[in-house]
Prior knowledge:
three-stranded antiparallel beta sheet, mainly beta
Amino acid sequence: MNHPATASLPVYDKVLPAIEPGTHPYWNALRQHRLIYQSCRVCRCTFAPYQLVCPSCWSEDLEDRQSTGRGIIYTFSIVHRAPMPAFRPDVPYAVAIVQMDEGFYMTTNIVGCEVQDVRINLPVHVEFVDVTEEITLPKFRPIDSR
């Protein structure tokens, strides 16, 4: 199912994540502008993106859960030097690890604010960015940002 916004996407010239075997439910949910994560039924570990086994106890007894899409910045770094030409228009930009309300962590970009306003414990929420017809990326913006 394609999201309506994908009909007129600009060319995306940055590196795209690989859709690994078994991770299709995660990527399908993102295309529907939903953030899901996994929970281990054995040890209750929560995590995203999708994995075939629990990273804590290696169990395959996993379930999908819907995230609120809210969390706080756990840590971050400001990128001042583009890793490749396609990123030059974006510098400086913030790469962060967000601790989600459900307990799992996500590596992401912080958008919708100046990099000097990014801080640890800043409340954020997910924003879905359709970059190709197959890939929607979860990025995060400060909750008080419009």
